[in-house]
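Run Nicotinate-nucleotide adenylyltransferase through structure prediction, thanks.
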Amino acid sequence: MLSPNQVLTPRQKALQINLNKNIYGTFSEIGAGQETVRYFFRAGAASKTIAKAISAYDKEFSDSIYGKEPDNRYVSQTRLIKMLDHEINLIEDRIDRTNCPGRKFFSYANTVTTINFNKTFKGHGWVGIRFQLHESESYNEIILHIRFHENDAKLQQETLGILGVNLIYGAFFYSDDPKKIINSLYDELSTDQLEIDMINFSGPGYTHVDNRLMSLQLVKNGMSDAVVFEPNGKNVLPADELYKKNIFALRGSFRPVTNVNIDMCNQGLKMFKKEKNVNNHNTKVLFEITLSNLRAAGEINEQDFLDRADVLGKLGYTVLISNFSEYFRLVDYFSRFSTEKIGISMGVNNLLDIFEENYYTNLSGGIMEAFGKLFKQQMKIYLYPYIDPETEKLLNSENLKVNESLKDLYKYFKKNERIVDIKDYNDSYLKIYGKKILAQIAMGKSGWEDQIPKEVADMIKERGMFGYSMGTLLTTNQ
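Sure, done. The structure for Nicotinate-nucleotide adenylyltransferase is below.
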């Protein structure tokens, strides 16, 4: 008898599914053998669960079943969806439901590439399941993207098999709790073995699910270092968004987005686009929020997170949620996907943090190792000036005071134009402080509306974001 907190093994999960007479479907696996369905065959009693298992490994044969890929990319979400479409249609065409009342059909698929021979690329893949929760209901779907971390193809195959079993089990037995499904994907696995950097839930069973929150779970649980979603809230694969792109990023709390944030982005981006081979078509702009920022007030407030994401989406920005406290880790992450130019727009206080040696005590190479990762790929910092509220002094890269031991290093990066001042800024924005605006919103004071974009102010009022209350405002103004 299992205790309430005991995790089932992959074999136990497969057997429990096999013993359920109403779960019935197909397995199609390409690129790493038939590792998932193997558990179901070995568990026993599989004859009423497995309709078909296929591994159309040869590209020509696979094309004859699922069609050709115009871009010649076979480890892709497009390919996975074609596989799910084809297999579900087959099972619907060939199985007469009148002979099997109560049956819930499913199709599980994966298309992956494991580590290459020279071990220079560890491999990745797409994994998904399309399934019914009730026989008369339309299909639900869970799709995820993985990156392998292990250095052996056989180990990666075994990891993929366990992940597949966990996904199928979670889809049927934890269907009403997407967060539990996500957590269960790592049963008998660890983040040292693989990373999940994108997941999407869809279908009638998940109309209430906001996939941005599911992305947040991945970062929060250490399953991924970063996730990306578009202005419309759709989760996207970071590699697809950033591949071979020039990348321009702005980090902040965006609680709420202020005119300073927008000016810092726009003016820095304008300078970035003056760089050789940088234009609108080959540049990706990201607004980044770190996990530590989301936790600034304690536990992560999901509604607060969604409010920030909605505001950025309203302004048309792509959002990156990351677990990167240090800027060098952010740049190192971008370098996974692109060898093009990287630009980061930031304020004076952020730059001072970068030139603080205590910031890098966790690195064996200290600040020099960090700077080696930070300033690679022609990375430039576009520095937005700051007015010290106490001294009223304007601070920029020319009059910043860094630690004495780092002065020469600072001068080197300045001289080589790796740190450049944003000069075409709006003077009237320099005394806008996000924390002050947030306090004004919560206290019901007026005047904050002029310090943020109009569409953001309207959204805050309409939806009562960031502590805004019409009742509080009326009471304050009486």
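The longest strand covers residues 104-113.
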